[in-house]
Fold these 2 entries.
Entry 1:
Amino acid sequence: ERERLWRLRHRPAVTLDGERIELLANIEMPEDTAAAMQAGAQGVGLFRSEFLFMGREARHLTRLPDEEEQYEAYRRAVEGMQGMPVTIRTIDIGADKPLDGKAARQEYLNPALGLRAIRWSLSEPAMFLAQLRAILRAAAHGPVNLLIPMLAHAREIRQTLVFIDKARAELQARGDTAGPVRLGAMIEVPAAALSLSVFLKHFDFLSIGTNDLIQYTLAIDRADESVAHLYDASHPAVLRLVAQTIAEARRLGKGVSVCGEMAGDVHFTRLLLGLGLRSFSMHPSQILTVKQEVLRADAGKLADWARQVVESDDPAELLGR
Ligand code: PEP
Ligand code: MG
């Protein structure tokens, strides 16, 4: 079986009815691009940049990565993908991903609802600007998408765009080369999924973070074992938010991808194809299994069934779960 999957490595991911599907890799470190390339990924759909900032004490690193160190890491990821796009997500610390030394904010009861991800970045202007400059510089070496986590408010979007302009201006003033980036927003807070027009006005693409979207929609802490049985990707509320996000992005001709666990779970491949998703990002180890499912699917024929699943009161039953 593993050998059979391995042979799919260089086979394009095309459905029976001829739809080309983009299968991308989620990575945590630049070195992970090797596994992504080996699995035949067509790019990186999610580089979780916070991993450059985490666990540094264990690696005997005494300070957080500065602009130069980040630039090197992003450039290595870009070069590792040999001309294919790399989506770099700005730092998503807080909650389950504490930062060494710095306030992990575990003192709060609900870190997942606290100063996390973009909220944290907007509260640390020097750090945010350094990261943005590093990403823009790496973008001079190959195609880069810049992805912002956990946005919910129009005000946060506006502030983020100001920071990006400022980072670009700083590089220009320094005489450094910045590359172009496509700009994307994670849709992982229900408020974002329910106000898509605001996001689609400002961003080139959306990336659905189902891990957090499930957590926040169902009010289930994704790290709490005692409620893990209630963490349900096939809850109708979750599927309706995912379906709407895909449909709205497509209607406006914007890119849309899923980069949460749902994208790498073969139980959802046919549903997502039927809902119109054409870009999936997952751990490199899941790519070939998902590709096998794509090769067997007829996306056009799945559309009606997918709509029924999403409108159903018991999607899990129709998904055969
Ligand atoms: C997600 O929330 O689905 C996601 C991809 O981001 P992370 O798992 O890093 O929070
Ligand atoms: Mg997330």
Entry 2:
Amino acid sequence: MATSKRILECDLKGGNLVRTMIYPGTFDPMTNGHLDIARRALHLCDRLIIAVLNNSSKKTIFSVSERLNMAKTALEGLPGCHVMHYDGLLVDLFQKEQACAVIRGLRSESDFRFEAEMAAANKLLLPGYETCLLPCRSDLAFTSSSIVREVASYGGDISGMVPAEIIDVIREKFNRTDYRDKQNRRQQNKDV
Ligand code: COA
């Protein structure tokens, strides 16, 4: 189905067109880069679903409920923004929510290659699927969830990288004894 037709067929509530977009990610954890994309995406649609998904090639540090709660806290108060977890294919969620496009942030050429592959694969699975790539703010071009995790694991300052409301949750995760024990055990195994 052509996108324009799909947009026209989105929910008509009280005569108003409701354009739904999905911003999917692992969000392990959500960063200021993600927050900026979400805020800007809200200017392009009426309803933005932040979908906390699983990327099978990533082993996450934060559990699904921790990632979900952090995203909810960081995005609280943004009108039209809904945070949810989905355990399945993105195209299935796209169809279920009658979305008109998926939003993804673009930081670099390497991001583009990954995004182009993902967009093409999803389009093959669902012809009506569309991707909208938003270039990230230049001051956030080097922010990533893995850099946040790395800095936080050494007790460094993550305040410029993540929303203020979730700093304590991230710090606490890396301070927890079970996390530190696991890291120590891993290090000991490497040393022998
Ligand atoms: N600013 C700063 N950083 C950004 C950013 C931005 N605007 N946009 C992305 N990033 C970073 C993230 O911090 C993250 O960094 P990291 O890799 O160092 O941890 C990385 O770019 C991308 O992570 P994220 O945005 O959380 O999403 P993802 O690429 O892991 O998401 C899914 C991929 C979940 C959308 C994809 O795997 C998926 O759709 N899964 C569902 C199953 C499915 O349908 N699979 C088929 C896909 S073809």
